Amino acid sequence: MYKSVIIGTGPAGLTAAIYLARANLKPLIIEGPQPGGQLTTTTEVENFPGFPEGIMGPELMDNMRKQAERFGAEFRTGWVNSVELSGRPFKLDVEGMGQFETETLIISTGATAKYLGIPGEQDNIGRGVSTCATCDGFFFRGKEIVVIGGGDSALEEASFLTRFASKVTLVHRRTELRGSKIMQDRVRSNEKVEWELNRTPVEVIADDRGVKGLKVLNNETGEEELIEASGVFVAIGHHPNTGFLGGQITTDSNGYIMVQPGTSETNIPGVFACGDVQDTRYRQAITAAGSGCMAAMDCEKYIESLEHHAAVL
């Protein structure tokens, strides 16, 4: 029996772990197959406060983990197959480790960026391939960039990247975009943006120095074409990692956990959510860390209320 279990070890989960461990609550943190979350696939992080010269993503996550361990947090590596939240204590079924019981639960399992699955894509993440313009746009100052996608996310990324790039080419496999008209009009009026519609991405082209371009299939002519670029931003959306919850937690239509405004509280008392698993807008390391702090403080207060109630009885 644990007072609190945290699922996920990105900036949100690790910040929550630091706070709960410092409160002497000895939390158990269950990390999945990608400890540290999406930041472990990032090279240099320049926008996390406190590091004026920047810091490598994996190093930042490793430092946060060591900080939590220093205060007594316990880490286990495993895949959470399912949870039972109908009564307390909550029960977690973890592959290879059996069942754990906890008085409270913090969910910080994040959201996974969708990729195309084409050759050269995964091999060049952090070497010119990115899914976050806010995170990585600065590194492409004065260079040519490709943005792949046709929704509002792609249009927003393309618009943002024109602050840095000399040219942004938006690639979409259809002739019509799915994004809102106001966003389409805004991007179309930007002289730095060029359009390659009705093109299907085929392969990310790179050498030992990084990305050189994107090979696409012209759906009208059937011929392959090369779009030269130093960066390829894949903007086809994210999906939150909430499948293991089995519908017990209230989510929006896209599967993101819904929390009470201004808190980390879910529809089930004692269950809290933080980080990208409940954030459809910002998706930044610093906002994830902030929400992890909120979840830990909400959790600590809830545990205190349980103990006070038990003492009264």
From TrEMBL:
- Reported EC number(s) for this entry are 1.8.1.9
Is Oxidoreductase one of the keywords? Answer: yes
GO annotation, cellular component aspect: cytoplasm
Name the domain of life this protein comes from. Bacteria
**Sequence ranges assigned to domain FAD/NAD(P)-binding in this UniProt record:** 3-292
Q: Which UniProt keyword terms apply here?
A: Disulfide bond, FAD, Flavoprotein, NADP, Oxidoreductase, Redox-active center
Protein name in UniProt: Thioredoxin reductase
Organism lineage: Bacteria, Bacillati, Bacillota, Bacilli, Bacillales
